[in-house]
């Protein structure tokens, strides 16, 4: 039991530290409360969730689709692994571009703001 608790704590710590939560789902895992809890925790913390599913038709997927802010990536069935990888690379690239844009916005704001304004905002 302690091993399970340690894994749950480790998973939550990892979710807190990540900016993007990539989760691989199977027909079995999607029905477990552990996966549902981790997905809900990630959503509650405002993490972007990228779901990867091994099959396109999985029981229980409908109850979780509201958590997914992006498309479901399917690696199995008729679509194949290569199609799933192409979609994953595209999705990860979009997230990298969004992160870069956020960094540039902060840098632009900082460059345009005087030190006195920043100090005033902090006080």
From TrEMBL:
SUPFAM superfamilies reported in the protein's UniProt record: Toll/Interleukin receptor TIR domain
Annotated InterPro entries: Toll_tir_struct_dom_sf (IPR035897)
Name this protein carries in UniProt: TIR domain-containing protein
């Amino acid at each position: 039991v302690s091993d399970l608790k340690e894994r749950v704590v480790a998973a939550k710590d990892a979710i807190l530290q990540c900016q993007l939560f990539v989760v691989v789902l199977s027909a079995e895992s999607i029905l477990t409360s552990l996966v549902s809890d981790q997905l809900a925790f990630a959503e509650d913390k405002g993490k972007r969730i990228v779901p990867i599913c091994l099959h396109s038709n999985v029981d229980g997927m409908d109850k979780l689709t509201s958590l997914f802010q992006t498309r479901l990536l399917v690696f199995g069935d008729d679509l194949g692994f290569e199609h799933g990888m192409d979609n994953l690379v595209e999705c990860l690239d979009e997230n990298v571009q969004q992160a870069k844009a956020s960094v540039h916005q902060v840098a632009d704001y900082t460059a345009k703001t005087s030190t006195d304004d920043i100090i005033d905002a902090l006080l």
